[in-house]
Specification:
mainly alpha, 3 helices, elongated
């Protein structure tokens, strides 16, 4: 897949990498990425959703929406 090829290329030319999970870190290790380049930072979208969902609920027009996470990896947090 082109996206996967791009991800691998970018990982190898980057100075620092920020992984969302320990699982993603292990995938990078398996691909030959050294630990010195990688930091586990968390899933930015997952972390921001509860905060922004709370703000949206304060507005009447959002009362009928059911906001959910669609990224399967986010359920591991």
């Amino acid at each position: 897949m082109p996206a996967e090829i791009n991800r691998v290329l970018i990982e190898h030319v980057s100075t620092l990498l920020f992984s969302p999970t320990e699982t993603a870190l292990q995938i990078q290790r398996n691909g030959g990425i050294g630990d010195a380049k990688v930091r586990v930072q968390g899933h930015v979208i997952y972390d921001a959703t509860p905060y922004n969902k709370g703000l949206a609920r304060k507005r009447e027009e959002f009362d009928t929406l059911n906001i959910t996470m669609h990224d399967p990896s986010s359920r591991k947090h």
